[in-house]
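ASSEMBLY PREDICTION REQUEST
Request ID: AP-0331
Submitted by: J.K., bench scientist
Number of chains: four
Total residues: 284
Priority: normal
Notes: Please return the full assembly, not individual chains.
Input sequences:
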Amino acid sequence: MDDLKRQFNRIGMRYTAQRSLVHQLFLGSPCGLTIPEAVSALKDRRVGETTIYRTVRALQEIGRLCWVHDHKGEHRYVACGSRHSHPIVCTVCGKVAECRTCELSVLEKLLGLETGYTVEGHHLEFYGKCADCSRLPAQETQ
Amino acid sequence: MDDLKRQFNRIGMRYTAQRSLVHQLFLGSPCGLTIPEAVSALKDRRVGETTIYRTVRALQEIGRLCWVHDHKGEHRYVACGSRHSHPIVCTVCGKVAECRTCELSVLEKLLGLETGYTVEGHHLEFYGKCADCSRLPAQETQ
DNA sequence: AATCTAATGAAAAATCATATCATTAATAGA
DNA sequence: TCTATTAATGATATGATTTTTCATTAGATT
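STATUS: Completed
Returned structure:
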């Protein structure tokens, strides 16, 4: 995907082999990863800690990575398709799905009236059970 | 306010002088505080680090404190009035207001259909300019 | 190829968070 | 009030995480 290269260039950064590995890792992690997890996952692939921190920041900047708080409150990074998506985190297995629907405009208007703020954006995270975990009644996965 | 004491007791904790100081500190901080900020703010009042970490967790548990990510992405804790409120963070000065309006039920239904998840809850943060900072056109405060 | 610029990762340093535990304070019961 | 009980406190130690620094390497440009 050469698109990524262009997006990196746009923010004055190069799309290198290491950065590609970092991105691939997140794409293959449906529950997202904390940074320490990403670091240890790529230790054998010889990608350094510093590179991972920098790449995570860059991927967020170009809208390919967002963060969620999982069921335990841990800050995890999850691959996403666009700068503006609403993640939903499974409270049982931690799997994250992406929701493109966004109908917050009404709420934003109300909010503006209520608080006097000019709304510019938001972060919205949902928590719930994924289809699989909804079926297993009270069994702890992972 | 003796209400707080009851709330602490309900979760098996005591409402002590130190915990009161921590709570007061957050009540007087419209932009919220990171934990290290709270620690240094209370150093002269002789409240220890451990107590602050524990109290922050307790205040969250009883719904008097919520977290936001400020304009710089920093995790800050802000006093709030109820367990379910939607903070809005000023992107200029960082001041946080509380929004009680919650009309996400429609969105939650759509989301359930789109992803197959059973929605149980959410976290919603708005970003925007407060009334004061909306007036000053392009001036960086703080 | 030569030049320039950015990326890399090892190491050190700084920061942040948790665990341990002796001491102190708050509560409940007599 | 006095005592017993239980939880809170905070100093210290420890561990985890994040950032900084910098010599080296790789990628882009001419």
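REVIEWER COMMENTS: Residues 17 and 47 of chain A are 9 Å apart (CA to CA).
SIGN-OFF: pending second reviewer
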